[in-house]
Amino acid sequence: MPEQGLSGVLLSQEEIAEIVTRLGREITECYRDSDKELIVIGLLRGSFIFMADLVREIKCPMVTDFMTISSYGDSTISSGDVKVVMDLDESISDRDVLMVEDIIDTGNTFSKVVRMLENRSPASLRICTLLNKPSRRKVAVNIDFCGLDIPDEFVCGYGLDYAQKYRNVPYVGIYGGPTD
Ligand code: IMP
Ligand code: MG
Fold first, then answer.
1. CB atoms within 10 A of CB 41
2. Which residues pair with 100 in a beta bridge?
3. Please, which residues bridge with residue 127 across strands?
4. Can you tell me the distance from the alpha carbon of 69 to that of 179, in angstroms, rounded to the nearest whole number?
5. Cis omega before residue 95 (within 30°)?
6. Domains recognised in the chain with CATH numbers
7. Whose CA is nearest to atom 12 of ligand 1?
8. Given CB 3.0 to 4.6 Å as the disulfide criterion, which of 53, 98, 139, 166 pairs with 156?
9. What pTM value is reported for the model?
10. pLDDT tens across 136-153, in order?
C-alpha cells in the first residue's frame, strides 16, 4: 500500500538495494587504484539515506563530508537560485571528490555546486546520483555513476521530500498530492 499522498511505487526497497550495490561496485572499481584520498560528499538533505547505504558498499578507504545547498524552498520547481547553507568541513584540495545527490532534475543546483567545488582544486571530481530525470535537464551535468533514469514524475521517499515530508518512506514513490 503506498503511503498517503503517494500514488504508486517507483522503486521498491529491493530494487533500491540492487542499484546501491551496483553503484558501490562501480565506484570501488573506479577508485581502487587511486593514490589520492577519496572524499565522498553528500548534498543535504535529500542524499542522507542514499549516502548512508552507498558508503557501506564502497570498499576502499574514504572520508565523508556534507554540504547543504538550498534551491527549491518548498516548491516542486527549481528556482535556479543556489545558496550554500552549510559548507564542507574538509578541504577537497588534491583529493578525489565524489559528490552524492538524490536526484538530478533541471541540473541548475548541481551544475552550480560542481563549478564551486572545481574552484577548490580537487584531484578529480565525479558525480553519483540515485535518480536522474534527463527529460527535464536545462543545464548539462556529466553524471559518472547513475542509479536510474526516471520519467518526469515528482518522486518522494528514501530521503527525497515534498515540503520536507516523506523522507522516511523506505521506497521511492510517485507524489500524487497537490503541488504549488
Ligand atoms: P535541479 O536543480 O532542478 O536539478 O534540482 C535538484 C534538486 O531538486 C534535488 O536535489 C532535489 O532536492 C530536488 N528535486 C528534483 N526533483 C525532485 C523530485 O522528483 N522529488 C524530490 N525532490 C526533487
Ligand atoms: Mg535535494
1. 24
2. 42, 128
3. 99
4. 22
5. no
6. 6-175 (3.40.50.2020)
7. 46
8. 166
9. 0.92
10. 999 999 999 999 999 999
Nearest in space to 68 (alpha carbons), one of 90, 98, 51, 46: 46
Backbone φ and ψ for 72, nearest 5 degrees, come out as -95, -20
Say yes or no to pLDDT of 75 above 70: no
Q: In residues, how long is the chain?
A: 180
How far apart are the CA of 33 and the centre of ligand 1, in A?
33
* Active site (annotated) includes residue 35: no
Q: Does the beta carbon of 169 sit less than 6 angstroms from any atom of ligand 1?
A: no
Q: How far is CA 17 from CA 8, 69, 83, in A?
A: 18, 26, 32
Q: What does the pLDDT average to over 83-97? A: 95
Ligand 1 closest atom vs CA 108: 2
Q: What is the pLDDT of residues 7-58, one digit of tens each?
A: 999 999 999 999 999 999 999 999 999 999 999 999 999 999 999 999 999 9
Q: Which atom of ligand 1 is found nearest the CA of 161? A: 21
